[in-house]
Amino acid sequence: MSTYLLNGEIDKIPEYVIEDYIQHNPKVETGREAVINFFKNFLQLKPKFEIINLCSEGDTVYIFHKCTLANGSINKVCDIFRVENHKIVEYWDVIE
After folding, report:
1. Domains along the chain?
2. Is the pTM of this model over 0.85?
3. Cα(65)–Cα(78) distance, rounded to whole angstroms?
4. 68: CB partners within 8 A, 6+ apart
């Protein structure tokens, strides 16, 4: 999914995210349409990602990365996804 997002192919999100997706970040709404809207706005910031570590255990995937925006802002992020039937059903993040 990240390849599609980095290429701006937001129309691919339904292939990877269930409709009633649960978002645990209180600043982002829950549901697949909210994910689509979030990325429509976020990709305008022209993010560049450097993956530091990626691992999975059971139904959970962890991605640690550095995100640099076009304005020079840099964040270190841990994305945590819970997956069922090859689709994202739940998401948490920690941003430094």
Report:
1. 2-95 (3.10.450.50)
2. yes
3. 7
4. 47, 48, 49, 50, 74
